[in-house]
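Sat 14:20. Reprocessing the chain from the morning session after the first attempt stalled halfway. Input below, unchanged.
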Amino acid sequence: MARTGLRRLVAIMATAMALLAWAAPPASAAESVATFTAKATINADGSMAVTSSITFADAAPATFQQVFDTATRTADDLEYRFTLSDITATSGGKDLGASVTGGPSTTTVSVPTASLTEPLQIAYTVRGAALSTPGDTVTVSWPLVQGLSMPVAVFDAEVTVPALFTGIDCAAGDPAAPGVCTFYSGGTHDTPNPVFHHEALPAGQVVVPTVRFPAGAVAANQDVHQVWSLDRAFSAAPLPLGIAAGLLLLGGLALWAAHRRIGRDAVVGEEPTLVAAFHPVGPGQSEFRVQDGIRPGEVGTLADERVDPVDVTATLLDLAVRGHLRITELPKASPHAPTDWTFARLQSSDPLLAYEHTLLDAVAPVQGDPVQVSNLAGSVGAVIGTVQSELYDEVVSRGWFAGRPDATRNRWARLGWIGLALAVLVTVALAAFTSFGLAGLALIALMLGVVLVAQEMPARTAKGTGVLRGLDVLRGSLLTQPVDTLPTGQGYVQLSSLLPYAIVLGGKDRWLQAVADSDDDDTPDSTDLSWYHGPDGWRLADLPASLANFVTTVQGTLFSR
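Finished this time. Tokens:
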């Protein structure tokens, strides 16, 4: 029973499908063009007048549309532009009222063709198809068939020429890679004008007749534009690449020569100028002595050509050690509270330099309460720039630099930034209008080099170079001198005087540890040092941690603006 039911169901479905097929209207044939016949006339000015006669294989469509490409781009970023004018669409002498729509690179002609019984004729004039070509020739090339959404069974064209031509060609097929037309000829007794023939052209494909003339027979009217692209703007062709490489090479050599001539330290003899040294004063004992009143802040500025936070901090400690300040560590409000300090001004006959006076007045005013480190940013921040400027003036007055290092850096950096801005503008112009953008990038790289090299342009004089070598000697002494060789009874004084220099040059930890190791009892030492007082219960063994904390805090506070 089940099998019988299945057979009945299949029979019913087959009968229904047959009835539906019988009742459905027959499918219309696909729209196609039976013949596409073109008559073209090339004028002496290079323009081409075209009249296309189109016969449909079946009933004409409601609307016929042809899309003309009016811009063609080549592989080398050239764009050839074409202009269509005098566009008409007729049939049997009647104007069909074609609609013409222009786009960035196309012109679309739409024609109402419903119930059309006679061939459709589309006429237009194209300019821009006459191109100057090698060999002193002019080549007229234009796709007579293009932009159709239906196939063409047979294409024929005749091109009337104004003069003798030297060659003809015809391509048909895919617009990206057309092949050869079925047939073309011309220049004979029977066919003096070029004629072109092709069959079975699928929808969307083209037929491109070409006629070549000697120079003077037809005027070239090509409208060609260079199209911007990254590949064109920054071309790696031999000439642009060679110019860019040459600029980099010559500019790099010039920058190296400028640094060598202007930014290199003066050459001196082998003998260094000592800044400070350990002088023997007895058997196994040496005293630390500073030469010519050279301050630790000046030492740090000479060493790296900059006034760094450590230079200002070392100056504060030096002022304290020399008796102008007392640094007092305050008791903590709680075990987890940050440490704070005050600066108290002391009377001292020791002379002050300009930058020292400015810094001292800021941290410990003559009239006023002691300043706390936590408030330094407000009280000292406004004068840090002045302190740095006066310190630069001081190293120049000592004859270590011919000019202020910061001014030299700023001058060269300003030159580099201005040059960089100009190089960017030049690069934009080169990339926009030429293929030499790589040369602009080379200029940008050179100007960035000037900005970077600007930091190395300050140069020490012969005197400054000699002192710099002396700093190397002092650094070696601070790192290697036995800490137990200081004169008996003067240990704390000597350790205090060398600490600011050790903070700048290195080795402070070993000297601070020497202070801590000398504290061999449990007695508080909060006031044993004249320049640093600690809270109740503070001992000399705490000095390394206290001073390390002080240096870090002061530098962060002063230079956190």
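The radius of gyration is 47 Å.
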